[in-house]
Amino acid sequence: MAIAAWRLAQRWCPSFPVVQLHMNRAAMTASQKDFENAMNQVKLLKKDPGNEVKLKLYALYKQATEGPCNMPKPGVFDLINKAKWDAWNTLGSLPKETARQNYVDLVSSLSSSLESSSQVEPGTDRKSTGYETLMVTSEGGITKITLNRPAKKNAINVEMYHEIMRALKAASKDDSSITVLTGNGDYYSSGNDLTNFTDIPPGGVEEKAKNSAILLREFVGCFIDFPKPLIAVVNGPAVGISVTILGLFDVVYASDRATFHTPFSHLGQSPEGCSSYTFLKIMGPAKATEMLVFGKKLTAGEACAQGLVTAVFPDSTFQKEVWTRLKAFAKLPPNAMRISKEVIRNREKEKLHAVNAEECSVLQERWLSDECMNAVVNFLSRKSKL
Ligand SMILES: CCCCC/C=C/CC(=O)SCCNC(=O)CCNC(=O)[C@H](O)C(C)(C)COP(=O)(O)OP(=O)(O)OC[C@H]1O[C@@H](n2cnc3c(N)ncnc32)[C@H](O)[C@@H]1OP(=O)(O)O
Question: How far is residue 119 CA from its own chain's centroid?
Fold first, then answer.
């Protein structure tokens, strides 16, 4: 029955391309040759990347070649060596291979960002091109990632999942202090694009569910591991996964037009984005159950009262008020903010990754259920909306 429903769904959207099998980036590591090439590339950079980036490069180089920092800490007045030591020591027990990969990624993002910045007029946003579903800009210490499928209410299709991960990885290494996620148009996001379920690979629905679980796990993992302050600017209604991952943000600002809706039971699905853990901590089990099990839609005011949202602003002044705050935050010392976030969040990371893995594995089964298939088919055949 479930398979029949999948096939039915596929018939409504036959033009959607077959999903590219997702390659897990974590499985890829840079070779020694890539590493050496990257070291040479650094020497050829036309512009000084700034002290913060140079410290990161230094730390990754030391970690990749010598392993964890075990040098004695320089004295407080030995400023330069202390900054270098701090940068290296921050990497903790990061494996040499990962440090090598991160070094190569950083150099590659640096080469492209410094090249593109030279083409941008002074005073304008530095816009990253190469995104189909997002707008990404970096200016004044703020990297802003805007979900940009307004005609589809910013539903997150497979391409957007990949692009958000790419944008977050780039933002984690660029010279911005804070990162903002927001939506273009009247919605923040309508959550998972339900047509994602219609591209069935040759291995059938089981393979589709497995690939989706891998993608979801990696996607949520990027939010768990994001090292800089991450702020959601929720400009309008938010649904599904765009709501659940808010529990992994550091600050959430909402327009009073925003609503927060996680209709998982209606869709035959179960919670993701670590919400089965974060929402319970944020609002307690009863309120979390109302949202995650019974699909109660919260107004922005209710979400704020329950701690999911940090502050709510009238829609008419939302952008002005929020961006005034964000610009002030972006002027604070970036290293202090990053380290404070680490202190606040790091002890939860392992737990969050475990929760993420468990939620994805439960969802993998749910996606094969009749309840889920029927809900997707009903939406695609326009029999139901939220
Ligand atoms: C890799 C897989 C990971 C999976 C992770 C799992 C996550 C779980 C979730 O996120 S569950 C939430 C899923 N989302 C929904 O169920 C929302 C479905 N959408 C709606 O109910 C409505 O569209 C609406 C209430 C969001 C907005 O209604 P409205 O009447 O204002 O607008 P339209 O319905 O006309 O929408 C405009 C066009 O946008 C398309 N669209 C909107 N949301 C989605 C979506 N989530 N998936 C796919 N398409 C969506 C809608 O179909 C319209 O397109 P059209 O103009 O071509 O008809």
Answer: 27
The closest residue, in CA terms, to atom 41 on ligand 1 is 152
Complex ipTM? 0.99
pLDDT tens for 7-44 read 444 443 333 233 222 233 333 577 888 888 888 888 77
Per residue in 47-72, pLDDT tens?
767 767 788 899 999 999 999 999 99
Q: Which atom of ligand 1 is nearest to the CA of 385?
A: 21
- Return the pLDDT at 79: 65
CA angle in degrees (0–180, nearest 5) for 145-360-6: 95
Closest atom of ligand 1 to CA, residue 212? 1
Beta 230-234 vs 238-239: how paired, if at all? Answer: unpaired
pLDDT in tens, 211-224: 999 999 999 999 99
The reply to whether ligand 1 has any atom less than 6 angstroms from the CB of 9 is no
How many of the other CB atoms lie within 10 Å of CB of 54?
15
Sign of torsion, CA 282 285 288 290?
negative
Report the alpha-carbon distance of residue 112 to residue 134 in Å, rounded: 18
Cβ–ligand 1 distance for 244 under 6 Å, the answer no
Helices (H), 75-151: 79-90, 96-117
- 26 token code pair: 């974590």
- Label the pairing between strands 259-261 and 238-239: parallel
- Quick one: pLDDT band at residue 80, thresholds 50, 70, 90? confident
Domains delineated in the chain: 32-111 (1.20.80.10), 134-384 (3.90.226.10)
Which residue(s) pair with 179 in the sheet? Answer: 143, 230
191 CA distance to ligand 1 middle (Å): 7
Whether the Cβ atoms of residue 75 and residue 82 lie closer than 8 Å to each other: yes
Which of 13, 16, 153, 223 is the best mutation target for the ligand 1 pocket, counting ligand atoms within 8 Å of the beta carbon and taking the most?
153
